[in-house]
Amino acid sequence: MNTNIGNSTISSTIEEEVEKMIWATKWGSDTLMDLSTGKNIHETREWIIRNSPIPVGTVPIYQALEKVKGRVKNLNWEIYKETLVEQAEQGVDYFTIHAGVLKEYIGLTKNRTTE
Questions:
Q1: Which CATH number does the domain housing residue 26 bear?
Q2: Cα–Cα distance measured from residue 78 to residue 47, given in angstroms and rounded to the nearest whole number
Q3: pTM for the full predicted model
Q4: Sheet strands side by side (includes 31-34)
Q5: 3-class secondary structure, 94
Q6: What is the pLDDT of residues 15-39, one digit of tens each?
């Protein structure tokens, strides 16, 4: 079983995400996916990884977009690659990479509310 957790721009603290991780493992989750899209993605993930007894995955495009302050036109391969390497060095176990998403469509998600 995989459990999805993660902060957003409108809710959740690092402590709340770690608590979600703890409950996920208590209920038998085999893996954990950090889908954080809010602020402090790196720090949030750091706390999750350091406290998780199970593998943790991410969607690197979320942090890559944070790095360019949501400006899709500033997103490029170097920033994305840097994000992948950073997350791997941090201890992320696996990634979800949306390889079929065109850069021109990423901007359409800008006004989406994530709760």
A1: 3.40.50
A2: 26
A3: 0.84
A4: 2-5, 31-34, 56-58, 94-95
A5: strand
A6: 999 999 999 999 999 999 999 988 8
